Hints:
With about 750 residues, this protein is mainly beta. The chain has six domains: about 5-305, no CATH class; about 315-400, Immunoglobulin-like (Sandwich); about 410-485, Immunoglobulins (Immunoglobulin-like); about 490-570, Immunoglobulins (Immunoglobulin-like), CATH 2.60.40; about 575-650, Immunoglobulin-like (Sandwich), CATH 2.60.40; about 660-745, Immunoglobulin-like, CATH 2.60.40. The protein starts with a helix and ends with a strand. It is flat. The strands form 16 sheets. Strands 1-2-5-4-3-6-7-18 form an eight-stranded antiparallel beta barrel.
Amino acid sequence: xxxxxxxxxxxTVILFLLLPVSGNSTxxxxxxxxxxxxxxxxxxxxxxxxxxxxxxxxxxxxxPYDNIAEFGIYxxxxxxxxxxxxxxxxxxxxxxIQNPNVNPCLEFPSNIVVEKGVYQFEVTLRVIDEEYxxxxxxxxxxxxxxxxxxxxxxxxxxxxxxxxxxxRQCNSSAVFRQFPPTIICVNERLDFxxxxxxxxxxxxxxxxxxxxxxxGVGDGGPCTTPLPPAASCLPPFDLVKFRRPSYSAxxxxxxxxxxxxxxxxxQITGVPNIEGQFVVGVCVKEFRNGRLMATIxxxxxxxxxxxxxxxxxxxxDAERIGFQEYLIRGCGASEIEFNNASxxxxxxxxxxxxxxxxxxxxxxxxxxxxxxxxxxxxxxxxILNEGDQCADTAKVIVDIKPELIGDFIPDFDxxxxxxxDFKINIDTSSARLERLDWDFGDGGVxxxxxxxxxxxxxxxxSVKLSLLDENRCRDTVYKDILWQPAPEIVVxxxxxxxxxxxxxxxxxxxxxxxxxTYDVYWEFGDGSxxxxxxxxxxxxxxGSYDVLVDITSPIGCNIRRxxxxxxxxxxxxxxxxxxxxxxxxxxxxxxxxxxxxxxAIGWQWDFSGEGASFIPxxxxxFPDTGLYLVELxxxxxxxxxxxxxxxxxxxxxxxxxxxxxxxxxxxxxxDLFLGKGDLEGIKSYNLQVYNRWGEMIFQTLDPYExxxxxKDNNGERSPIGAYAYKVLYxxxxxxxxxxxxxxxxxx
Length: 747
C-alpha cells in the first residue's frame, strides 16, 4: 500500500475512532488493536500505524486511563515469543459511547456509561519470516461480570498479530465499523451489525472467541500487577476462565434463542434472557485468496438489563414458535382458556382477542375463553392497548385435531398360572396410531399392538395404555387386573438334603406365583410347622424326615405337595485349635498350631493360601508381615465337617533413629547425616534440613541418601553449627510418622 492510499485509510479510521475528549474512566470493559501499513522500504523495513482503542466503565470503578500506556512488540509464534521493543504513548482521546434508543417504547436505564480512549503510534520493523505481536496489558475488569471467574482480579490483554504474509503484502488490518450497544434489553431481540471494514477487499469471517487475560492484583510477581512490564511479561496470554457449563467463549450469553454471530456478515442476533454483565470476544479473520492474512480481536462487555417497556404481550402454557408467536394444540371439540401472562399489568388498559372461528369472534377479557367446534386451524391475535402507540400484539394459532379415545381388553384364566393377553379396542378411522405404550404395572412395558405379558408375582396391577396418533392427539387408559393364580407346581430348594447335626435348612419356596397374601403351611416331619413362605428350620436330632407344603391363593386356588424322606441328619465333629506365639512379628514369624478338635479323624489346615497341612499339630513360618486367615477343617467318620478360623497378625517393625552430630571431613567416618535402623517397608520418606534462618538447604526422598554438609550438595560448604531437621515417612501399616530435632555439624 503506498502512502497516498494509506492516508485515505488513516483518515477513514480516524472518523471511526476519534471523538472529543472526555474527563476520566474506570474499569476495562473491552478493547481492540488494529494496524495500518504505511509502506515497505527497499531494505525490507515495514512502517505501521498501531491504533489501540480501550473501553471502560465510567460509573462502577475508580481506575483512570493510563496517561502513558506501554505496548509490547514481540516476534515469534505459537507458544514461543521474544521481546523486540516497548513503545510508550499517551492517550489520544477519551469520549463517551452513546447507546442509541431506536425503540420509542423502550426506556433504557441511565446508570450505565461506557467511555473509550484511543492510543496511537507509528513503528518501523524489519520484514521477517516470523509473526509480530503488538500487545497492551492492563488490569482489571468489572467485579460484577457474570460469565467469567474472579472478574475483579482478571486483567485484559489486547493483541494483534501480523503474519509474515501480511508483512510482505504491506497489509492493513480490518477495522470494526461500530462498537456494540452498551446496553441491551433482557428478553428483547438483539440485532447488531458487528461487521468490519477492510479497505483492501479481503474476505472477512466472524466468530465468537475467548478474550485474553493479563495482569492482576499483584500477588504473584510483576506479571500479575495492574500494569505488567511489557518487556518481561511475554505472550502467549491466558484465556479468561468462563463459568462453565453455563457459559463459554462460543456461548457467552444465555438466550432463547441463544445469542450467536453470523460468520459471513458479523450480525449478532438472539434474545438474551439473563440480566447481568457479560464479557464477549469477537474475532475477525481476514483471508486473501483463501489464505489467512490477519486476525483482529475485540472483547467487550454486554450490559443486559431490564429495559422499561410499557406492555409486553405474552402467553403461558403455550408453545412459542416465534418471537411473540404461540401455538396451542387441541383435540376434539373443546373449550380453551388462554393463560394471559402479559405485563406490565398497571400499564395495560385494554385487552382485545380476535379469532376466526367461522367468522370473527372477539373477547375483551384478560384471559380469553373460546369454544372451538372441532378439527381445524384457527388464527387469532391478542392485542394489548389496541390503537395506542406502544401497543403490543401476540399471534396465536390453535390447531384442533379429532379426539382420540382409547380402550383395551385383558384376557386370562384367573386360577391358571399363565400369561395375560391384551387387545386394544380403538377406532383409528380418523387418524393412524403413531405410538402406543403399555405399562403393565410391574415394570414391564411394550409397544406392540396386542402384547402378551407374563406376571411373575401375584397382585393387583394398574395397567396403563398411552396412545398418540398422527395428529399428536393423546389418550391414556387405566385398568386394574387381579392376578392371583395358584402355582403351577410346588418348587422348593433344596430338592433333597443330607446334612450334619445341627442341621439348619432354609427352605427356599420357588413356587410361582406367591406372595404374603397367600396362605402357606409347612410340616417339617419332626412335629414342627410354619406359615412362612420360605422358612428356616433347625433339625436337632439325627434321622430322616418328610416335608409337607400347602399353598392357597387369596381367591381360593390351592396346590399341595409332600416330599418323602427328604431330610437326613448326621452327627458332626467340633473344630478347635490354639497357636503359639499369639503375636508373631517380622523377626519371629513361625507359629506352632495345636489341635483341640473333638470327634475328628481328619484335619486340613489352610494358611491363607500360603501353605497347607494335613496333620493335627503343624508348624508354619509366615513369609511376610500382615494379616493371615488360618482355617482348620475337621471331618468325622460320617464325612461331617466343622471349621474354625483365626486371623494371625504378623506385625511389621520399622526402627528409624537420627544421629545428633556428624563430621563431614571425608575421613569415611560419620561423613553423612543419615537415619539409622531397620527401614524395610518404609514408604514416602522425606528428609529436610534447615539452617538457622529457616532456609531449607537439603532435601531427599531416599532414606539411604544422607546430607554431606554442603548446601543442596552443590559443593558450597555449610558452616559448623546446629541445623534443624524434619523427617516425614509412612510406616508399613500406612501410618504417617514424623521426627524432628537438631543436628550438629562438626568439622
